[in-house]
Write a structure and sequence with these properties.
The protein is α+β, with helices and mostly antiparallel strands. The protein is 27% helix and 20% strand. The chain contains three helices and four strands; from the N terminus they run αβαβαββ.
C-alpha cells in the first residue's frame, strides 16, 4: 500500500522547531517594568505626556454666510446643478462644523447646499457628521 505525502521523521523533526522559531520571532513581545520599591526616577517608566493646545476655531470666509440650505425639490425647480457631495466629520462644536461646511462650499463655487445627513454628536469627544450635496443655482437675474 502506498503512503501519501512525505512523512519522513527527519524532515518533520527539523521542520517543527524551525516553524516554532519563526513564529516566536514574528510574534514579538512586550516588556513591562514594574517598580515595586519606587527606585526608578519619576518619568523613567512612562513617557511624558505632550500638552498640545486645541486647534483654533475655523473662521468663516467672506461670502460663506450667504450659502444657505435648501431641499432637493426646490433645487430641481430652480434649475440648480449638483457639483458634488461632501461627507465630513468635525470634532468641535456643531456650529464650527457648519462654518467648515460653508467654507468648503464657497471654495468649490457652490451657492446652496442640500442636507443629506447632519448628525449632532451628544458627546463632546465624538465627531459631528455632515453629508450634503453642493449645488450651484442660477442667480435670480440669470433666470
Amino acid at each position: 500500500m502506498a503512503m501519501r505525502g512525505d512523512t519522513h521523521p527527519r524532515k518533520t523533526g527539523f521542520m517543527m522547531p524551525a516553524i516554532g522559531l519563526v513564529l516566536a520571532l514574528l510574534a514579538g513581545c512586550n516588556m513591562y517594568v514594574i517598580d515595586f520599591e519606587n527606585r526608578l526616577p519619576d518619568g523613567a517608566v512612562l513617557a511624558p505626556k505632550v500638552d498640545t493646545p486645541p486647534p483654533p476655531p475655523p473662521e468663516p470666509l467672506a461670502g460663506s454666510e450667504e450659502i444657505a440650505f435648501m431641499d432637493s425639490t426646490t433645487a430641481q425647480l430652480q434649475g440648480c446643478r449638483v457639483i458634488t457631495t461632501i461627507s465630513m466629520m468635525h470634532v468641535g462644536t456643531f456650529d464650527e462644523g457648519l462654518i467648515v461646511l460653508r467654507n468648503t462650499a464657497l471654495r468649490i463655487n457652490a451657492n446652496r447646499m442640500i442636507p443629506l445627513r447632519l448628525v449632532d454628536s451628544a458627546h463632546t469627544r465624538l465627531p459631528h457628521r455632515f453629508r450634503a450635496k453642493m449645488v450651484r443655482c442660477p442667480e435670480e437675474s440669470e433666470v
